[in-house]
Here is the input.
Amino acid sequence: KVLGEHLAKLASSNPEIVAITAAMPDGTGLSYFQKRHPDRFFDVGIAEQHAVTFAAGLAVNGMKPVVAIYSTFLQRAYDQIVHDVCRQNLPVVFAIDRSGLVGADGDTHHGVFDISFLRHIPNLTLMAPKNTIEMKYMLDYALQMNSPVAIRYPKNNTAYMEDLPSYPLYDLKWEYLKEGKDLVILAVGPMIEIALQSARIIERQGIHPTIINARVIKPLDNETIEQLIKTHANIWITMEDNIIEGGFGSSINEYVMNHDINISIKNIGIPNRFVEHGTIRELRESLK
Here is the structure.
């Protein structure tokens, strides 16, 4: 809903914006955009590969296409993302719905692989908002970039996350949510809520963490990383709703190893197995 309404608002003042979905106008929230701008809305049916290549063609001709597809279904269009969009460095925005655990949608719909299959692609910027307000800021930023951008976000959000202050992006920087001296927690998307809940528990034991909203997964915010290395504890935890292999935590591991830094890192994420059906709460319990 937030995607459809905000994109429709932006399109009212920018005639280059078009929206594309693959048989999911309601599920992606683009039905609102469709009503406001029917001549700039395209439902290509269950053809995700075509949706991505079609977006590339529109981008070549000066349009600003936004492709809204569930994370699990975007896997079908991996080759088109690489070959048709990113290789040509085209300004296509991927709005990746249902990232992470999706609960009642079923075990085939968990979007737990997208960070791993996207972050290694050249030219692609990958973001994850902590709430709907930040999502709007990311969409604003992405549509001003002249290169491919993917914004991944979960099916649901909580009132707690919506109450967190949110600020526009600048230079693809991360956000400090809490300052502490004992350890550093780098969290992505909905895992920020878990990080903040965890902080309240460990603070009762006298452990005070720094919590970072790593809202830009790629490129890494090297400036903030270097600042954390110089001024904060050398115990780091990464938290993401993606498989650990090849995910956000892996990128932090790579940075630390490549720069020969003495930091102890614990990666928290989805283990390398297919996730079953269940509520998000039940699944988080089972995946410990």
Notes: The two ends are 32 Å apart (CA to CA).
